[in-house]
Amino acid sequence: MRLDKFLVEMGLGSRTEVKRLLKKKQVLVNGKIETSAKIQIDENQDEISVNNQVLIYERFVYYLLNKPKGVISATEDDKHRTVLDLLNENARQKEVFPVGRLDIDTHGLLLLTNNGALAHAMLSPKKHVAKVYRAKVDGIITEKDVEHFEAGIELKDFTCQPAKLTILEVNEEQQTSLVEIIISEGKFHQVKRMVQACGKTVTDLERLSMGPLMLDERLELVTFRRLTKEELEKLTIFGVEL
Questions:
Q1: Residue 25: which region, alpha, beta or left (left: phi > 0; alpha: psi -120 to 50)?
Q2: Which end of the chain has the least Cβ crowding within 10 Å, N or C?
């Protein structure tokens, strides 16, 4: 890998900014000052340091985002803010993308990474990766609805796989419900359409987990953080290089 590309990927700035660092003799390669941006380095073997700080190369990065409403799960869009707009410049250097999507008015857990193999594994229909949602519903959810979910709800364009619907709260006075829904698919507006098929309407939807990853209660809305070592270890179940 070229040295300037390595430094850019490590979040030290644009190519122009990186070249300034090199000219100022602030970059060392294996303990020797290097001023050429074009030299080839082995990112896994050579020791690269900037201002006496050794840089550890990461091929893949993983961010856990607490997505807010009003933001779309895409890398670019002409009309709306995207989840990438919520990241800082350093986090965007690795060209990350969202694993799956949350609707514009759905909030909660979203994984962003540049590991295409992991994203493919987590989204593969064959893997049946469970996704847990908490939904506020306009209408009273009943045990009959629970059975309907377990049997597999038939929508206009497809029949849903069996899903688990758990009633958390029911407010008879306001005619509302709070429920938890577990599905192993990710069709367009699926949770909302399933609830609608029962004659009720989702008024708020939050994703709590996806596979082994759970929404960190300490992670405020609109903020993100790197996955922990423990969370990365849980992702090894997908059998891809992390």
A1: left
A2: N
Q: Rounded to a whole number, what is the distance in angstroms from the first to the last CA of the chain?
A: 20
| Active centre residues (catalytic) | 103
Query: DSSP assignment of 76-130, as one string?
Result: --SSS-BGGGGS-HHHHTT--EESS---TTEEEEEEEES-HHHHHHHH-GGG---
Is-contact 134 214, C-beta < 8 A?
A: no
| Contacts with 13 (C-beta within 8 Å, 6 or more apart), sequence order | 7, 21
Q: What does the radius of gyration of the chain's CA atoms come to, in whole angstroms?
A: 22
Residue 228: its pLDDT value, please?
96
Q: What is the pLDDT of residue 92?
A: 85
Residue 196, Cβ neighbours under 10 Å: how many?
16
Closest to 101 (Cα-Cα) out of 79, 77, 78 = 77
